[in-house]
Amino acid sequence: MSLSLHQDSQTSSLRLEGRFMFEAHTHFRNATQNLLDATTARQITLELSGLSYMDSSALGMLLLLREKAEAKDIKVVLANPSPAVMEILKIVQFGKLFDIREG
Amino acid sequence: MSRRPFGIQRRIFFVFGLFFSMVVAGGGWGVARYFTAISRSQIEQRQFDEVSLLARAMDDNVVFYLQILEGAAREVPRRVLMDPRSATIWLKGRTGIRATFENGVFLLEPKGRVLAEASSVRMGARIPGHLQPFFDAAVKHRSAAVSPPYLSETTKGPAVMMAAPLLAKDGRVLAVLAGGIDLLHSDFLGEMFRYRLANIGYFQLFDSKRRMLIHPDPARLMKPIGPAESYKLYDRAIQGFEGTGERTNSAGVATISSFKRLQAIDGILVANIPISEALHPIERFRPYLKLAVASTVLLTLCLTWLISHQLADNLEDVTNQIRVLGDFPAGERIIQTKGHDEVSVLAESFNSMMQRLDAHEQQLTQAKAESDEELALTKHILQRLVEPGLLALPPHLHMETLQTQRINGDACAYRQGLPGVHFGLICDATGHGLTAGVSTIPAVHAFLSMSNRDIPLDLIYRNINSRLHQMLPAGRFVCLMLMRLDGQNAVISILNAGLPDAILLPSHGAPRTIRSRNLPAGIVGELDNPEVEHIAVSEGDRFFAATDGLQDILGDRIQAILARQPDLPFDQCEQAIRAALEMGGQDQEQQDDVSWALWEVPPMNQP
Question: What is the rounded CA–CA span in Å between residue B350 and residue B325?
Answer without folding.
Answer: 12
